[in-house]
Each structure stands twice: as structure tokens, then as C-alpha cells.
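pinned: reference chain
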Amino acid sequence: DLGRFKEDDTWVRYINRWKLEKADSSLKLSPPKNPITFYIESTTPKRYRHWVKQGLLYWNRAFEKVGIRDAIVVYQQDADTREHMEKDPEDVRYNFIRWLNNDAGTAIGPSRVHPLTGEILDADIILTDGWIRHFAKQHKEVLPSLAMEGFSPETLAWLDSHPNWDPRIRLAVPAERERLLAERAARGPQPFGGHPLATVDPTMIGSNEYDGLVGRISQVNGLCMAAQAKALDLGLLRMTLEVMDQAQEEEKEKKKKKEAKKEVNKDEPKPEEPKKDEAKKDEPKKEEPKKEEPKQDLLDGIPEDFIGPLIADLVAHEVGHTLGLRHNFKASSIYSLADINSEKVKGKAFAGSVMDYIPINFRMGEGTVQGDYAMIEVGPYDMWAIEYGYAADKDLKQIVDRVATPELLYGTDEDTWGPDPRSRRYDFSANPLDYAQSQMKLAKFHRERLVDKFVKEGDSWAKARRGYEMTLMLQVRSLSMMAGWVGGAYVNRDKKGDKNARLPLEVVPAKTQRDALGFVIENSFHPESFGLTPQLLQHLAVDQWLDEGGMRHFGSDEPDWPVHDRIMSIQASVLTMLMNPTTLRRVYDNEFRTPSDQDMLTLPELLDTITGSIWTELDKKPAERCTARKPWVSSLRRNLQREELERLIDLTLPDAGFTAAYKPIANLAVMKLREIKEKVGKALEEKALLDPYTVAHLSEAQVRIDKALDAQYIYNVHSLGGGRGPSILFLKEPNAPPQGN
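pinned: its C-alpha cells
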């Protein structure tokens, strides 16, 4: 509004809300004049209709806080009874929950909003069953997005000019990498590294995660990925159910054999019975027979008490968008994992909001009971947001005063690329490290059972590959989540004078950062963290059908699973998470934000920890002669060492960064290269004990370090096309001839 003079006054923002008023203002709890009415489309499977309705009605509890009972009413369109069949879902007069069938998994909740008032005029929710059917996505589709989660525009710009660091390139199948590089070179640099926020087209919504939020007078969520977030976890649940079913069958078989053995032995002479007093003394207490748990109803092969709440939770999330709420990615961090899986929290909301992308709660030993698998009601933040949006103006000050309440944490889409690790998709609990560790337990649980229990008689061995790759997705999601805590700082939206106001920026405690770093190293740098054995690798097959039902992507599903390439691509992506210039800059800046008499993770410590964990083999001499079959440095570790070496060299180059932190980062990288060179030199003194692989690897590392340390000028190192010109000019001493290539 340029009719106003002060800059703070020119931007007038309206919240989005329905025109919802009490029918009787004298009542403390009144029905509405005009309720928000939704119709569930007749295409919705009958087995799911109850749960879809539940998700809609969750929100009535929030409206009761502002004195309105039954603010949302729901009707079922029914093809059998013809009830409400005259209503067209495309008609803007009706708000519909629509149900479609596909194999992608979609859930969106767009709405139409009056641009001058913020009044919501119409809303529709579209659901598909792809996320319930089965998890059929390929590793190359899912892993890159998991590895890229939380990267800022600054990081994306770096990756644009350093494709060898880019998880989207490294995690692609080898046959596709050259094409991806050529496409990148052809399009040239993009604004902010191609961040989705910089590429939004407001004319059409639905393909970009920021659609509806940019370039419009009124903001609406045009794309939501909540369904896709649940798909991986549901795939893991199906794996778990299959493994458990197999275990139960084996237990029944053992019981049968035991009973048969009793039958065989019943005719044998019985030993002399002891005297009654002795018998009572020695007689063990009889165990009461365990009652068999009643069989649960299955919906599409999944217990109803599991899939039902998941559907209701997803519907509630999308309904939240149609009520004017945006995502809240901090909501999952209000309770510890032990509390979530306890009687104290079970049966109520275990997160601050249904507007987060919350993983399914699989209990792997944490807490005392299995908590709810999904949100079973709206959370305290949802109640607060509705209260603020629909309460009387006179109550707003009292409502806003609760901003610093721990259960009301808030961080939305544009917060996910900032320094606050709590603003995160797919994380869980107040201490995500506990959750990450439980996820690795789950991955290990499945890997140990893929060959023997998950693949049944008559199944294709391709099932083992699909199962293993799902565990890799679980692992990468956990690694990416914890890497975000390194260099992190909590961001609070409190204003000066707010009640119990927190600091706008609070650096994550040093111990928390170190614990996160330790988790990432332990679960990615060591070969055993991937659970691979010769037996498992021999069974990671592929369906030999040249169609979409078998070899879905030509060139990406070869019969021999490329173990070195897949593991290296994950480890390279993890190094990018930890060593990209944005993370290093944040660590460096946090040192300055923290008083010098307080403990803090420093840049030297970070690089020391990473490098020290990667080159541990060089800290001692081999006890006996190594061979190519039993090398001193394993193949996976050699790949990792070579990768880190390249990263350190990249960080010493003139184009290694555009921030003031570049020079100290480059200096420390040079120092680490010198330290590695010294260790490599000492290791090669024991060449007689080393295997050919290790000798070749260390010799090459020595040459690479020498050339990098001697380099004075480097031209066009990361050019992706055309002539590169003179790539490196090396100088050893005045008047010495150039060396290198």
C-alpha cells in the first residue's frame, strides 16, 4: 500500500481464513452460521472413508477453542445410494476430497482466496493411493532428493560450478552422468543455483514445492509432498510385516515339531515320581498359556490400526492447508523418542502440528510401549494457529504472548535451507540423534533378514535388491538429517518485548554438533555400516523383463549390483553435506558468535575429525604382509580416501568460495593435505608389507598432493565444455620447468 509512507507499513499482509461466525454469539460454544462443508468423493474406497472423514473432523477440536462447535461438516458422496451424486467436484460451490488411483503418491490441498481480504472461498483436497500401494521408486529417484535436503541457494550455486560435489550427479547411474553434465553446461548458471524458490512460475501451480507461495497476492500451498514422505516408511512397514509373518510361520513350525516329539516320547517309561513334598519344592511354576491376540482387519495387506491413522493424518495435513496453515517443519521436535513411546504421550498428539512431514513412528527399543504410529489429532501449534486466526481481536495479545511456549515451535518452507536444524523435513523427536540411531537399527534389522526371511519361496531375488535399496534410502535420510546439525544455529521468530522472548539466533551446543558429526562418520565412512556381505551381494538380482514392470530404467538395473559405485556415491554425498563451503562458513561464523571462554566446534576440529576418521589405516603399521585379497586399505576405504583428497584440493583452489571464510578454509585444507602427505610417506616406507592396491593408491595420493601443493595458478578446472586451455601451472622453484598436465 504505497499510500502509506513508512516502509514497515507499506506491506499489508492478510492471513487466509474462512468466514466462520457463531450462529448465536451469546453461547460460549455455538454452531456456526455457515459451516465449512466438505464432500468425500464417491471414488474414495469404502474401506478408507471412515479414516478420511476422521482426518477432516480432527480440526473441529481446534475450532472449539474459539467457541465454534462442528465448524467442519462432512458428507459422503455415494454412487450406490446416489446421495450427493448431483454435485460435481469441479464445481467451485463445493469443497471436495477427491480420490484418484496412481503409482506416484500425491496429496495436495489448494484453495481459492479473495486477494483483497484473505477470505478462503473454495478448497479441494486431492489424494491418490500410490503411497499406499507399494514403494516402487528407484534409488536414483529418491536418494538424490534425500541427500539434497536442506541445501541453501549458496550451496546449490557452489554445486552448479562443482558438479563433482553434487549428489544429483554422484547418485545418478553412471550411464546418465555425462548427459546430466552436458545439460547443465548447455543451460548455464541459474539464479541462486537453481533453487526451487527462484524458478517458481505463478501462472500454473503444482510442479514446484513453492508454487502458490511466490508471485501471488495471496499465498496458498500449491504443492505438498506429505504423501511422498510417507511412501518410503510404508514400504518399510510392508517389509517388516513380511519378515514378522515369516518369523511367526517358523515359530509355528517349531511348535509342531515340539508337539510331534512329545508324541514320540509319550510311550517311553516314566521316571519314578518324587515324594509329594519334594515335588512341590522343585516344581516350577506353571506358565499361563498366552492368549492369542485377535487378528486385526487388514486394509490392502496392512493392519487397519496402522494404515487408518496414517490416512487420517495425511488428510488432516491437507485440510490444514485449506484452512490457511502453512507447513511447520519444527513441529516434530517437541517430545523425546522415549516420551513419544510412553503411556504419558500415547493417545495424544506427539508433535506440535500435523503440518510437518513426520515419519512413521517405528519403535526400535526406545521408550516403554509402542507409541502411536502417526498423529491421531491436531497438535498444540495447530490449535494455537486456529485460535489466532479465528478469535476476536481483543484476545489476540493474550494469544500471541504464548509465542515462546516450547510446544508452539514454528518453521516453514523457507526456513528449511537456513541454519536451524529443527526446520527439517522427515526428522523426528526433540533429539533427532535418538531417532537416527533407531533408523539405523531398523536398517540393520532388515538387512540381516533380506535373504532368509524377506524373500519367500518362489519370489524373484530382485525383491532382495529392492529391500536393500530401501534400507539405503533410510540410511541416507538419517545421515542427511544429522549432517544438518553441524554448524547449526536455532532461529527464533520472537520479537523484542515478547513474553519469555528467546534470542533470535542461538548456536547449537558444541556437544550436540559433535554427537551429530560422530553419528554421520560412524554410519557412512566405515564399510560395515552398509551391512554388505558376499552372500547378500550374490542375491541382489534384478527382474529380467525389458518393460516398466521389470527393468524399469534401461541402464540402471544391471544384474550385477554396482557395489563400489553405489557406496561411493553415498559417501561422496555425505562429504558434500559436511564439507560444502556453506557448512564450513557456518562453523567458522559460529566460532565468532560464541564467547571465547565457551566450548564450540571449530573449523580445525571439524576437518581434523573428518580427515582423521578417513585415514585411520595410516596410524599404524601392518602386523603381517598384506595381499590383494586381504589389502591393508579396503576398496571402499580407498575410494573414500581418494574422494576426501579431491575435496581438500578443491577447497584450496581460487574458485573454492565467494565468502570471507574462503581463505581460512583454504589454508586449513592445505594444512590437512600436508599432514596426509606426511602419513602417506611414512606408510610407503613399509611398502614391502603392503598389498599392490594400497601401494598404488598411496603412491597416487602422494603425487596428487605434491601437484596440488605446488600449484600456483589453475585455469578452467571446472569448465564443463569446450577447450579447457592450460589446466594447471606447477612451479617447484625459480627457473624450474612446469610439471603436471
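why pinned: The longest strand covers residues 95-100. The two ends are 61 Å apart (CA to CA).
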